Amino acid sequence: MVSDIHGESRRLLKVLEMAHYNPSTDRLFLLGDYIDRGSDSKGTLEIVERLVRSGAVALLGNHDLMLISAYYDPSNLQRWVYNGGYTTLAEFGGFIPERWVRFLEGLPTHHEEPDCIMVHAGLAPGVPLSEQSDQDKVWIREPFLSQYRGKRVYFGHTPTCLLHGEERWEPWYGEDKVGIDTGAVYGGVLTLLDIDTGQVWTA
Predict the structure, then answer these.
(1) What is the DSSP annotation of 146-160?
(2) pLDDT tens digits for 81-123?
(3) Do the beta carbons of residue 159 and residue 183 sit within 8 Å?
(4) What is each CA distance from 41 to 36, 81, 162, 184, in whole angstroms?
(5) From 17, 94, 120, 135, which residue has the greatest number of CB atoms within 10 Å?
(6) How are beta strands 116-119 and 57-58 bridged, if at all?
(7) Are the C-beta atoms of residues 29 and 56 closer than 8 Å to each other?
């Protein structure tokens, strides 16, 4: 499981290599935010698209959603650019390719397994999964971080140093939730977590 790649395509390929990822025997989950801030958003999208074709589950993140929103409504462009979209837009030559809008639009906002839920940002406490809003699933921090109780949730979005309360770039384990955004574009690392064994690979 990997989250918040943010254009760090080389790191993504590195952690997959370190973990000896094999799509024919392994299950891979990507928790969103493939673009913005890093140097290779386009390349990252190409890798993610290829991984999905070979069986990976990729979820939508808030940065991915901001690109979609800016494509359909130019009034949303400034917000996206301000939040790191300027790097992605520059890679695309100043316009948003429809190809990537269509790809990102097709991504789900959560994935559920018998023993856990995977989502980019989190869930609203006390709300059934079927009634959770896409907005919360890709943007929420509070009250999810302090109040959610239920089936274990794996999430990204909130850098784990904020959850640890110190500059520790490693997964954060809380009650009923696990944060895996280890700050690849904030001076941290990109982490691949094996949720069955707890083993991590970082780059």
Answers:
(1) HH--SSEEEE-SS-H
(2) 999 999 999 999 999 999 999 999 999 999 999 999 999 999 9
(3) yes
(4) 6, 14, 25, 13
(5) 120
(6) unpaired
(7) yes
